[in-house]
Amino acid sequence: MTLPIREEKPREIIKPIFVTKPNLPPLEKVMPYLEAIWQSKVLTNNGPFHQQFEEALKRYLQVPYTSLVANGTLALVIALQALRITGEVITTPFSFVATAHALRWNDITPVFCDIEEKTFTIDPNKIEALITPRTTAILAVHVYGYPCQTDAIQAIADTYGLRVIYDAAHAFGVRRNGKNILNEGDLSILSFHATKLFTTFEGGAIVCQDEKLKKRIDYLRNFGFANEVTVVAPGINAKMNEFQSIIGLLSLDIVEEEIQRRKHIAHLYRTRLQDIRGVKLPEELEDVEYNYAYFPIFIDEEEFGVSRDEVYTALKEQHIFPRRYFYPLISNFPSYRTLPSAQRENLPIANRVADQVLCLPMYGALEEEEVEKICYILWKAISS
Ligand code: T4K
């Protein structure tokens, strides 16, 4: 049977552009590892690929100890348990909601502290005023991979005897003065979610500085089992499986190239956007080697008359899907908004930044032409 010839022109297929696209190892490299799993039938519970990836990750990141876990949220929950954090924890409202949820899952009260203008991370100058006799720790976030002011945070923690945990979900491979920022504080956590620079589909890790703590974390991620008959803590199931581990192992070979490609994209965006009136770009600090996990821009409606949401809609109409990370602020969600620290007047900068931010598409496979298109639509939306 011959099909009738279509008279009308076929419709153009429009390729949507999402905020990110996972960077995966070549499938042909994955297959032999899958075959090995199918042969061995070892699927999880500290299998050989888990062990290899944990060791390789530690070497890659140049950190003393790593513990792989099932995702970044469980990494946070376990990090808090491992350090036996209780009472109140001072944290940032400008993050993914998992940061505060992890506190709540440990029956800890989050105390929100405002952020600083330059890096969007917790403002160390505002932490001390929030400390009470119930405060036990500071949970800071290297948001977008921009390092927190770790020296100032540590100085406060040392003065008041507080623990410091870094949510480094965005900060894979970020260095300051040549040193990986995962070496700061008592513990740092990573996320290897599909949307992250480095992904194992779902996954995460906890980085710590001492062996005893690593041992406790490893018990906690496996129900608290120390051996077949001994349970030393009320742990949880947060184990990374063998499939995730092989993706992680193979992804270590491709992450540096991804960072370099993203650096190029970031440079292109900067060149095109720096002169558009109404778009503010974050400053890049000289002593930091960034990972270009995200490309946030800020649109000030008061100053320029066009709102962030108008620009967001204009892009969406052209099948470009940026994200407003992190709007709404965590402190404005129903689970948190009644806390005294969550009140808008206590968090002026965080609220303003959340109302202005737009994370543009950022991934290594983003084509130059696509960047040009995004910038053109942006320019048109702002200047119309
Ligand atoms: N701390 C911080 C600071 C975090 O940012 C996160 C997670 C965590 C802790 C917790 O870590 P995990 O427990 O997640 O490991 C995403 C992610 O779900 C979340 O992992 C991430 N932060 C957060 C910032 O973003 P959504 O709701 O934006 O994801 P979604 O599904 O809308 O994806 C965004 C775009 O990514 C899609 O439009 C297309 C692309 N995509 C997404 C997925 C899931 C793909 O191409 N493939 C995929 O499989 O939350």
Describe the structure.
It is built from 12 helices and 17 strands. The protein is globular. It has 2 domains: 17-21 and 255-322 and 361-383, Aspartate Aminotransferase, domain 1, CATH 3.90.1150.10; 27-114 and 122-251, Aspartate Aminotransferase, domain 2. α2 (48-61) runs parallel beside α7 (242-251) and α3 (72-82) packs across α4 (98-105). It is an alpha/beta fold and 384 residues long. α5 (150-160) links the parallel β5 (135-141) and β6 (163-167). The chain has helices at 27-40, 48-61, 72-82, 98-105, 150-160, 211-220, 242-251, 255-273, 301-304, 308-317, 348-356, 368-383; strands at residues 17-18, 65-69, 88-91, 109-112, 135-141, 163-167, 175-176, 179-180, 187-191, 204-208, 225-227, 230-231, 279-280, 288-289, 295-299, 320-321, 357-360. The strands form 5 sheets. A 7-stranded mixed sheet has the order 2-10-9-6-5-3-4, sandwiched between helices. It has a 3-stranded antiparallel sheet with strand order 8-7-14, with no helix packed on it. The chain binds ligand T4K. Residues 18-22, 71-73, 95-96, 98-99, 141, 167, 169-170, 191, 193-195, 204, 321, 323, 325 line the site of ligand T4K.
